[in-house]
Amino acid sequence: MKLYFSPGACSLAAHVALHEAGAAFDSESVDLKAKRTASGADFNAITAEGYVPVLILDNGELLTENVAVLDYLASQYPQLGLEGPLGRTRLLEALAFISSEIHKSFKPFFGGGGDSEKADAGAYVTKRMTYFAERVTSDYLFGDAPSVADFYLLVTMLWAERLGIVIPGALVGVLARLKARPAVLATLKAEGLA
Ligand SMILES: N[C@@H](CCC(=O)N[C@@H](CS)C(=O)NCC(=O)O)C(=O)O
């Protein structure tokens, strides 16, 4: 497998998942502005969307979209998913919520929004994160071990922390626990962020 990532971008979730799983994988960073990979390849020729994450499977197939990439990794490494008859459905429910309600709400911060647009977006992110904060009863979103949903939420909490957006209630502890995990520290180091 090979992961194309950009330091600190949403691809960090899949990068953490690969480290957590102890998977054998290659990775290459991408300059998202120039659309060039670290080895000089045209990123737009690798993926028409021109965004990360991109996961190249061992058979050469290419996966995009955080929800699909993270669902795939949880299917390959069940310790990163949720157990039970509704486990996969609950995981997809959380991933879709993080993608569409939280991740996308950061757009004004990354897309040149004005101050009031950013203030509204920050409040919205906090409100949507509160959905999880009110339901967490263990160390992580769904129990004593983190799932790929925790890693995706981690990325958005790191962004929130950097941008001064309030991280609600119980998620502060989840963030601290995630940041202390060896796989998270190793991933941040691999992305040049630690
Ligand atoms: N719909 C995609 C969006 C991924 C995305 O927003 N990637 C950002 C980094 S967090 C990116 O590569 N942006 C560069 C660009 O769109 O040009 C997904 O959910 O995976």
TrEMBL record:
<dbReference type="Pfam" id="PF13409">
    <property type="entry name" value="GST_N_2"/>
</dbReference>
<dbReference type="InterPro" id="IPR040079">
    <property type="entry name" value="Glutathione_S-Trfase"/>
</dbReference>
<dbReference type="InterPro" id="IPR004045">
    <property type="entry name" value="Glutathione_S-Trfase_N"/>
</dbReference>
<dbReference type="InterPro" id="IPR036249">
    <property type="entry name" value="Thioredoxin-like_sf"/>
</dbReference>
<protein>
    <submittedName>
        <fullName>Glutathione S-transferase</fullName>
    </submittedName>
</protein>
<feature type="domain" description="GST N-terminal">
    <location>
        <begin position="1"/>
        <end position="81"/>
    </location>
</feature>
<dbReference type="InterPro" id="IPR036282">
    <property type="entry name" value="Glutathione-S-Trfase_C_sf"/>
</dbReference>
